[in-house]
Specification:
alpha/beta, four-stranded antiparallel sheet
Length: 245
């Protein structure tokens, strides 16, 4: 298991990266998804139509598939049927249209594991894939849930947090906020992004709740130490290794 700064590089027991096949007939979508997943350290293959997806799956042997349901010609359901012949246990995350309720039901009934609705957030897709891959049991479980930034560690499974080897006790909301920061090290995250990810809704425009919880985290993470959590005035917040680490 390899842990990179700020994200967990999911590896299989043989030490190779997780392989993901991304299938969509819109090149912009496949490019964005592929970029986000490569950042996670995963090995990516993309396909723009059904036949290409089937060929790629046979050659690439993916550990997970992101599959658009509404493709012209051979649609996602046809692709899924053929994938299951060669890769019966591979987890599949469907991409569906916002109003495609019947489409989503058909996909899940046909054997898809989960779906996300377009337009979607890249982090949401990555998070769902992580869950599917872990549940599929293809990973090296040793440390598979560990995030590391400098001397700060966060275990996504056990919810244990430590800085410099000393345990840090967080509330559930503080943990989610810290996890979001640590998944995006050195990246400035706006209050709106944090509200959407941690609280999952607008919170009535009360963005000051972010300031409040950032202050809570600072008291627990940075107290008496070189600071890791920083404010960029007018832009947002970021986490990065302390200067002395």
């Amino acid at each position: 298991m390899t842990v990179t700064q700020g994200r967990t590089e999911l590896l299989k027991p043989d030490g190779t990266p997780v392989r993901v096949l991304v299938v969509d007939d819109e090149p912009t979508i496949t490019e964005l998804l592929s970029m986000a997943m490569r950042y996670e350290g995963w090995s990516i293959r993309s396909a723009g139509d059904g036949p290409e997806a089937v060929r790629a799956a046979r050659e690439f042997r993916p550990d997970a598939v992101v599959l658009d349901l509404a493709m012209p010609g051979m649609d996602g359901l046809d692709v899924l049927t053929r994938l299951r012949r060669d890769l019966p246990g591979v987890p599949v995350l469907f991409l569906t249209a916002k109003d495609g309720v019947e489409e989503r039901i058909a996909g899940l009934t046909a054997g898809g594991d989960e779906h996300v609705t377009k337009p979607f957030g890249l982090e949401d897709v990555v998070a769902r894939l992580r869950g599917l891959i872990r549940r599929a049991g293809t990973l090296d479980r040793r440390g598979a849930s560990l995030l590391v930034v400098g001397d700060l560690t966060l275990d996504e499974d056990s919810h244990e947090v430590a800085r410099g080897g000393t345990a840090v006790h967080l509330t559930a909301t503080e943990f989610e906020l810290l996890r979001f920061l640590m998944r995006n090290p050195r990246r400035v995250l706006s209050k709106a992004q944090i509200l959407d990810r941690v609280w999952s809704y607008d919170f009535g425009g009360r963005a000051n709740v972010v300031e409040l919880y950032i202050s809570y985290l600072r008291r627990k993470i940075d107290a008496g130490r070189e600071p890791m959590i920083h404010t960029r005035r007018g832009a947002g917040y970021l986490i990065k290794p302390a200067a002395t680490v």
